[in-house]
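Exercise: predict the fold of this chain.
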Amino acid sequence: MAPPFADSPCFDNSGCGPLAVPGFGFPLEQELHPEDRFTHGVREWFQEPNITARELAMLCLINNITDRPTWSTDVFNDTATSQLCQEALRSRLISPKTWDWCLSELQDKARIFQSSGRILVYNTGVAVCKSDVVLDKEVQTDVKYELSVIESSPHSDTTAIESLSDTSRQTRRLVDPLLYPLIYGKSRVLSEGKTVPLKNMFKHTGKCSIAPEVPVLGCWFRHGTNYLGRSTRNEQLQTGSSWSTNFQRLPCEMDFKEGHSTDVRITSYINGLHPRHQSLYHAIEKLVSASIEPWNDVLIKQSRGHFPTRIKMYGVSYEPPPPDFDRFTEAGKHPGSEPYYAAIKEAKAYCAQPDEYPSVDESGKVSLFVFKMPDDLDAWCRSGKDLGWLMRHKFSWLTHFVHPEPGTAYTYQQWKAGQAEEAIIERIPSLYEPDVEEQTVRIPFQEYRAALQESFWQKGLQVVVKIERIELNPGEPRFSGSDWHVEGLHNEHIVANSVYILEEENTSEPRIDFRQETRMDLDEFEHDEDDLEAFLQVFDVPYKQQILGGSSSPPPSLQRLGSVGLPVGRLVAWPNVLHHRITPFELLDRTRPGRRSFLTISLVDPNYRICSTRNVPPQRHDWWAEEALSVVLPPKVSVPQELVDHIDSYTDNWPMGLEEATRIREQMAKEQKYHEQNIMNHPSGFYDFNVDDCNLGDFPDLPSMDLGSS
């Protein structure tokens, strides 16, 4: 069993020597130290604490405005910004002060967009990048044509895929990385050297050996890491829950073309997409090139996000501020004095304010429990009653929680510069003394940016390509959406993704939805036993009914960020630490069929190397049969299909026929679904709020006291 972190192993799949990657020369579960790699999507990132509801509203507003066609000029136009402000203020969570912050941020985003064509949204901790200026119309036309060729080709796998137990029967995978994967103990691999050429893919097949079997992983536990990558005692992750010892999707290889530019070229075949589809290969190269800078923007290391929160607090704020109860108690003890009459006058005005939360019965009538001031306050006090108690009682009816405002603890300019250490309500130090090695300042964010084209221009990149088409018809006019998931399993080391809409016909626009893991430790928050409902609202904690109902099973600590629209021609990139799903969409005209094709590109952490199509010759029987016939027949000689089928019958579907590949795909999909549900349903933390522990009250319970005048 490998240790949790290796001392910088030298992974190599270049073909210049023996294959040295996890599973080949290294244990499958061999990992780099968090400081030496990017953060992956298996319980390694969390936002601490939750983003406040008001900040989430700000993020959503900024994303929506940046979807408008002329937004980058509108935010500098007084008339346009006035209209935008009026629309924004209709939201109860967008105040004038909040809008001012959003406008400043929008103007900065517009300046960046005008020079880069990219927009970072939901940028608190992590970020999502969207761009609408990627492929020109000519390339999009070529892509659409290539997809139609793939679909109609006799070599297409779409007919077989259609019958599989996918999320929806409407999904057709034109390029499916689950077909013909690396199979430990079965696939033939160039494990002693050599590479698979792009134009003569079966050249070195005779030099292959069978991939080694991987033993079932043990159940050693890896401790989590804090912001500095040091182990913590609060989380233990069973490694076997996210690794596959049976399969691995095969990425293709990408080399940077020249210098340190973002232009790339494909140097090994895309699994499931024959190199004959040159236009589609060219389009994928363009889209990977267009993804480099967005990936640079969103890739993260360890548990350090790129951006501090706009609103930082560890507790709940209330309004109005409490009066000086002791002053009223003391003044009430001296009837006839000047302080007494001043206090009586002030108390009358204070108690005459309308209650913040009046009690209303089922018929809509105000309940008898609404605060009622004594008819004769002077006589009430002279009878020995406590005026301070009365003020406390009225205060309990007036006080209410407030959503905190941005710009309270630090300004926009300070936030922009990363000077965001102060909090509106400061964090309470942990009640537990940390280990010596953990006694360090927590760093919730750090300004840094990846540069893939600089750091990996010699090694290149590995990416997994998937093309899916959702087909709708009048009988099934709606796609219900996909499940929450991250891309890939642990041994595939996926760290970032891009999605692009290749084609669309007669469908509404879908969106891609994002959520993330969070961490909420109530020991670090100021709160009391009456705070919980307000606490849940301020920090936008889901599962409110389950938590307030005292469920014995605490819900997972997850928080939805928001969604990004997916029109044709838009590229959206995000780190694989975010859970994502495609939202529902439907036919626009329900009398006609419609479809929408998605290209998903997943980046393997380039700090690793894993077994790829550079090392595994194509396992598809039809590709091999084509190649074999082209070798033995003279050029441009046409052979009747009957003869081809007859010759084919003697090859026993070597190396793998579609029927076997489909069966293996079902096994791999089932295994992947199991691990996916495990990851989604068992994050690294839970909303485990024990109300009995909420004991930091602002003032003691009030004794019963008659409010009558006698």
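Check your answer against the key: The longest strand covers residues 461-472.
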